[in-house]
Amino acid sequence: MNKFLFKHIDNSGLIIFRIVFGLLCFLESFGAILTGWVKRTLLEPQFTFSFIGFEWLQPLPDSWMYAYYILMSIFGLLIMVGYKYRFSMLMFAMMWTATYLMQKSSYNNHYYLLALLSFIMVLLPANRYASVDVKLNPLLKKISMPSWCKWIFVVQLFILYTYASIAKFYPDWLNASVPELLMKGKASLPVIGSLLQHSTVHYIIAYGGILFDGLIIPLLLFKPTRKYAFFASIFFHLFNSVVFQIGIFPYLSLAFSLFFFEPKTIRNMFLKGKPFYNSDEIIIPKYNTILISLLSVYFLIQVALPLRHHFFKDNVLWTEEGHRLSWRMMLRAKSGRIKYSVIDANTNNNIPIKLNDYLTKKQQRSATTKPDVIWQFAQHLKQDFAKKGVAVKVYVKSYVSVNGKPSKQLIDPKVDIANEEWYHFKHHDWILPSK
User: What are phi and psi of 336, to 5 degrees?
Assistant: First the structure.
């Protein structure tokens, strides 16, 4: 194991990846301001639905979130040029993760991936060449890196894509009804909008997605298929970029190819002036046992988290329990309607509320179909009325449709949700059965 992980290889791929990664961090952060994402998601809401347990993470007041994102974008540029690299990378990782945990109305698996990658990048010697740090301190300069610096990306991607593929093996995906629903919202796209409405395209998306996710990493690792897999990746990720408009992430996914091609190829393409390392030294550091232990624990967690929904009662597509952090990407379409009944606990009088007074339209979608968000909003209502000196109960009537099927009642209307406890590893019986 030591020989495999600590054999040195040329570091050209990591150096170029750092430059691309920093640029993409800058574009994602500054782009969130320019596109209005920061305003819509963090400034306009009265409060945000953070991950449960992180309610203390709320957006900064007034326009300070703009300053927050500008600072993140600056750290992205510093990562790109390799200045104060580890500090800049750590600051970006913490700031990005804080915003990820701060709100989930715009939940995206790619945001989670960027948080993981940012902390991984803190550990890597990605500033040892073509960086300001090396200009300021030439002793930092190196043309090699231990092999684990490459394989940490390969294993992370293998876990991600494998779970993404496996999750698609369920009836609504296999009969292409989910891709059909997803494409209905893309009918207005110029040129390709009408094409995306054909059933043949829906089946290509359904089974192409399964095959791509399941095979892309093995095909990139296998030299005879590497080029073909790379061209398939270009098509797949550009399609996602155009159709789903998911920011930097298709381009980040393409950047991972740097770890699959031969280092000499990467050096010849991007760093022609850099000496090529081919000595294959094995340099085992004093901290090797600690590093192997940390990586083992990390990847065990990565393997375990996507499995946890199997230990909850009922279907994850209905309950959402175990959905997040599980690489379950674009697997279902949900819609519904909801009514929150707030009852004065002392007088039993019904206190009318309007969702528009509390939530943005985007938040209302989550607070209609997702049980954890429904529970959080009930807690918010309870706390809001408590500040006015009124103890309340909150009952919910929620009807939800999954993948276009007939609506069913999601929440037990007889349960006071505001006075229920939340359990991270236990099913909540107030979520009614899907069947």
Answer: 180, -175
Q: 426-429: long-range contacts at Cβ-Cβ below 8 A with a sequence spacing of 24 or more?
A: 426/312, 427/312, 427/313, 427/314, 427/319, 427/321, 428/319, 428/321, 428/371, 428/375
Express each pLDDT in 148-200 by its tens digit. 999 999 999 999 999 999 999 999 999 999 999 999 999 999 999 999 999 99
Q: Report the SS3 class of residue 145.
A: strand
Distance CA 182, CA 219 (A): 28
The token pair that represents 244 in the structure block: 């789903």
**In what helix (H) or strand (E) does residue 114 lie, and over which residues does it extend?**
helix 109-123
Q: What number of residues does the chain have?
A: 435
How far apart CA 391 and CA 383 sit, in angstroms, is: 9
62 CB burial (10 A radius; 0-12, 13-18, 19+): exposed
Long-range pairs of 351-359 with CB within 8 A, sequence gap ≥ 24: 351/385, 351/390, 351/392, 353/381, 358/46, 359/45, 359/46
Angle between helices 148-167 and 109-123 (to 10 degrees): 170
For residue range 373-389, list pLDDT tens digits in order.
999 999 999 999 999 99
Token pair for 128: 């040892």
215: amino acid identity, one letter: L
Tokens of 53: 């347990």
